[in-house]
Amino acid sequence: MISHDQVLTAAQMRAAEDVLITRGTSVAALMERAGNGAAEWVWRVAAGRAVTVLCGPGNNGGDGYVIARVLAERGVPVQVVAPSAPATKAAGWASGQWGGMPVGEAPGAVLVDCLFGTGLTRALSPELAGLLQQLAAAHPFRIAIDLPSGIDSDTGTALNEGLPDYQLTLALGAWKRAHWLMPASATMGERRLVPIGIDPVNGAGRLTGRPKLSAPTAKAHKYSRGLLAVVGGAMPGAALLAARAAMRGGAGYVRLVTVDRPDGVPDDLVVQTGGAIDAMADDRVTAVLAGPGLGRSEDALARLDAALASGHPLVLDADALHLLAPARLRERRAPLLLTPHAGELEALCRAFGVAPAGKVAQAQALAKAAGAVVIAKGADTIVAGPNGELVFTPPATSWLSVAGTGDVLAGLVASRLATGAGPVAAAEQALWLHGAAARLAGPVLLPDTLIAALPQAWKEAL
Stretch 23-39: mean pLDDT, rounded? Predict the structure, then answer.
């Protein structure tokens, strides 16, 4: 069964193509599939305008020759820039099928970048980088085939400075990690997948999509829908935000557990003052959130320990992540989710004695070391599980880069967990709701407007 949501490394992609070749599909036939599929998108975008295809020496360049041939057959004005001759048998075949002569300079309306794709690990030469920049400047619309040239497909790192950006990127065969990792993902514009028949790959990541949520059953009541305890601390505002978001996340009952009742508590939020241990002892609690506004005092540490010892599924965010240490998880068996941003992720990796490079590797190593699902937040957010799960999320609006939206996300994750969703599913559902609400809230959003948009986001997922 062909999978359209898997996210592959360069090595996984090569191995997947080798499987097809072993079964009898030639490299040239794969190139035809990829080139024809990409040409369909280019043809639609070009709408009869002049197209320039920049072809490299490898198979990505071969895809470009197929694209040029198909466009010419459809009557689109097309020219090819090829700084060097094809260096693979399949690319040479594709060049011959095209049958034209490359040109040196090529102003036009649409640039199709087929210089290099998946597997590039070193910077473009100054000459090639200069040519790419020159052609990009001469074309108002730019399309990257598979990946923009000069990008490391496994990390999303730009291997050269000053690389152009694109309005459209066409992934060939499967998504690559760079399609969803910063800084590369910010340069790719819209992303579309061109299938070529790749089978599911063991150990692959996957791209999350719109969840299918459901309304409460006819027999539902507040406890059957889940009771979430939000453990507050020294700064009640953050915990209150998280609790308010959780009330819109699907749980039937949200209880804010604080030392003193804060100001501004809505009438429909239950507040329990006093010690956290007593609050955690309620058998009706189905999940706990600790961290937003918790503080880092001895009292905060005691409240965190009460949450950890409760045995309930638990989400740790913000201050709780700074207080967390491996020793505190030794007796922990229930599901655990951690929601670090980049700085917290690095600090947790140090605390747990893992030191890989790169966001994906850090999240995966921490998930395994802590036995937790890790939501590594940022402009590119990924979810890593202790059993090797790896989920990439499409980018949300940059208007989310404001204080308090992380508290909203933590409340949503914990709410979904309280409803009975598994930890990875809870993370995916919450991230989707968070991103959809942000889109609906519009520009210059604040946590309040984000929470207010959650019912409409829910409608889109029902």
Answer: 97
pLDDT in tens, 151-165: 999 999 999 999 999
Q: Which two tokens stand for residue 235?
A: 């700064």
d(CA 309, CA 321): 16
Q: Among the residues of 222-379, which ranges form H helices?
A: 236-247, 276-280, 298-309, 319-323, 342-351, 359-370
Average pLDDT over residues 306-335: 95
d(CA 80, CA 135): 12
Tens digit of each residue's pLDDT (9 = 90 or more) over 353-362: 998 889 999 9
Q: In the beta sheet, which residues pair with residue 290?
A: 231, 316
Residue found under tokens 């990690």: 177
Find, among 102, 66, 100, the residue nearest to 85 by Cα.
102
Domains annotated on the chain, with CATH: 6-205 (3.40.50.10260), 227-461 (3.40.1190.20)
Answer yes or no: are the C-beta atoms of 39 and 75 closer than 8 Å.
no
Question: What global pTM score does this model have?
Answer: 0.95
> What is the DSSP secondary-structure string of 69-123?
HHHHHTT--EEEE-SS---SHHHHHHHHHH-----S----SEEEEES--TT--SP
- The length of the chain, given as a count of residues: 462
